[in-house]
Structure formats: structure tokens, C-alpha cells
Model the fold of this input.
Amino acid sequence: MSASELLLKMFRYQAWANGELMEAMSGLSAEHHPAERRFAIRLMNHCLVVSRIFAAHLLGKGHHFTADNTPGTPELAELRAGLAAIDRWYLDYLWMVSPAMLSESIPFVFTDGSDGYMTREEMLTHVVTHCGYHRGEVGRVMAQASGESDESISLPRDTYAAHLHRTEPSRRFRGRAPLPAVHIAQEPANATSRMFHAAALLLWDV
Done:
């Protein structure tokens, strides 16, 4: 697998994981968990800002950010749309960038004024690992909030393995063909037999 192919897979994973996390964060009530919700939004907004900054670096262009987060805190819907858009941008970028471009080093300036010098491949790796680090922080905050209240908060399974098997369910067959469908000649006569019959069919999906 080439570096381009691996990066494309990792950014597909990031787009999926960010979407899953945004959905889960909608269950973090502003009424019951205002501090945790704001903290989570601020962290993911930081990811969005950094992703936008490095998109500019990849293009060799300037940007308007003077810090690695915005002064204001966006609403969750705005953040979700922003993350989806930047994730789409990176996927589109990876379709067009060549191996030679990936290995090219680019000078840039960090928001604190210090100089930076990274290849495009290194920048892309930074973006995807940086966001994963902060998703982990948000997940921890959400787990604590869920444990401290009666409110149930659904936590996403943010792992690359989970992503691969959810988006490519054929991996469960390990290269084997799926089991054939079961065809029933006639419906069982009573409710009890129908129940046992349905349970038997479910075994094919395990």
C-alpha cells in the first residue's frame, strides 16, 4: 500500500469518526452538562481550525487565523458542518496530489510565530493524528459526564478497526462467501413456533 493510499484510508476514517462523534455530542445536553458540552465543542473546533490552517499550508497560501482556536464557540450544527466540509476537502485533495508532491517540503509559520518545515505527507499525518488525539479527549469527557448522571450518552466506537468493519461488512466473512439465505417452505403454524423459527434465522447473522 502506498503512502497516498494509506492517507486516503486514514482520512476516510477521520471523516467517519468525526461524523460519529458529532452525532454522539448531540446527546451531551446543554441543560445538564453545559461545561462538558462547551469543552467538547471547543476541542473539536480547535481540530477544525488546525485542519483549515494546514490546508492553507498544503497549498502554500496564507490564512487569517492568529491562534489555534476561535475566540467564539460555534453551535454544534455549525461545527458539524465545518468538520464535514474540511474532511471532504482533504479527501478531494488526496485524490489529486501526486507522490512527488507528498514528498515536497514546505516552509510555513505556526500561529505562535515560530517557523515550520514539513513535507505534505508529514502535514497530512499530523492533521489526522492530531484530530484523533482530541476526539479521545472528548470521548473521555463524555464518558465521565455519562457516569455522573442518569442521562444516557451514547459513545462512538472510535477505532480504525471498527470503522473498517462497519463500512466494509464483507470483512466479517474473512474472504469467504456469505452464508446462503434460508428459504422457508411454509410459515410455522403458531406464535411459539414462529418465535423459535425467528431465533433460528438470527443465528445466520451472528
Q: What stands out?
A: Residues 120-147 form the longest helix (28 residues). Residues 179-205 form one domain. The mean pLDDT is 84.
